[in-house]
Task: structure prediction
Amino acid sequence: MTISEHRDTRLESDGADRAVVNRPHFDQARAEAAVRELLIAVGEDPEREGLQRTPTRVANAYREMFAGLYTDPSAVLATTFDEDHDELVLVKDIPMYSTCEHHLVSFHGVAHVGYIPGESGQVTGLSKLARLVDLFAKRPQVQERLTSQIADAMMRRLEPRGVIVVIEAEHLCMAMRGIRKPGATTTTSAVRGIFKTSAVSRGEALDLISRP
Result:
């Protein structure tokens, strides 16, 4: 069965404004079979007692870890409120867990997300910003793209005057293999609108983010 048989016909635009046609569905049986084959490939016996349920457990975990593939994350921003607010809204230290697409191991840390509402003064729920981060993180990712996707989705959906997103994360592909440098942190940022054109606005936001 090909991957095209697991897709529907809906459209999604990701943070790079690339159309994603036929969003995929999760194939539980195929995932379990793949995990079983992987266990055999590394020299294990998937029939031994401790591993018999492992393919099912891993498949269930992957369904949750990659849940952002099966929805449009930016849809969580559809609900807005007219608060006539025209100053910075900033949510700091949003816990973030994602999966490096190069080695399929975790990178995790925190996201800081801020925006200045547009002329309408419309704002979205604070929990929606955390949910947006969560859903974009629940995909095979690279941190740079994740940061941009969050910022671009906010610009499209909220039409604010500006958006700033900063992510700080530790990558287990650097900590547990390869160069083996546990504790190293990668910081990425994406600025849009007034935060890109105004050093004062950008500096204010970054100062608030850096405060303990």
Notes: The beta strands are 11-13, 19-21, 80-82, 89-100, 106-116, 122-124, 140-141, 162-171, 186-193. The chain is about 35% helix and 25% strand. Confidence is low (pLDDT under 50) at residues 1-21. The CA atoms of residues 47 and 73 lie 38 Å apart.
